[in-house]
């Protein structure tokens, strides 16, 4: 659980994150964050869009884990794009989370309502606010989320500080190879959201069921381990304490090359992206 990766600025990020997307029930959200931290997670991911920053902050406080031991991420709401809006709302997130700094702050989406025709300028101006908050010490690292190649091609030449993370949807069936390649060439760590999406279909896959018996692991554990071996940082969410514990048990085994190759070529019947 203490495995980390190193960002371009020398900061370290735990390789397994506890996500809070769609965790809107206040009690469930508080308990989920609290349980995750009590059971060894040290990376918590939320977003302004999720509407649960206050509850995430409460869960952190109730856990008793010192703030400096926790890697805390939030993301910019689509309504808060633009230089002035982003500057203001970073402080609002800090207040809701009950902290004076964030370990990572991301632009959540590159193209948002109201900026369909000027998203290029919008992203550059929004990023400028993140750079200034980073230089002021409010943000220990800054990055982007759901940025594809065209968005990176627009932003990267206009940065003073290169994004350190790109949080995207990657798992067997969705690889986003060109985005991953470009992000990594620019020095970014890849975070994987919704890495457990393939589970329903995989439960019907005989070869993968055999893998669960071979490794004595669940499909969820195999998918999270797959991400780790691909050098992604997976973000996994559950509101059940036993599942939170189970999802963390991925550092005591390794998927062999043949099985990794099977996951690499596996075809998903679900939505292609987002």
UniProtKB/TrEMBL annotation:
The record marks 75 as: Lowers pKa of active site Tyr. Residues 16-265 form the NADP-dependent oxidoreductase domain. Substrate binds at residue 108. Keywords: NADP, Oxidoreductase. GO terms for molecular function: oxidoreductase activity, acting on the CH-OH group of donors, NAD or NADP as acceptor. The active site is at 50 (proton donor). Belongs to the aldo/keto reductase family. This is Aldo/keto reductase. The lineage of its organism: Bacteria, Bacillati, Bacillota, Bacilli, Lactobacillales.
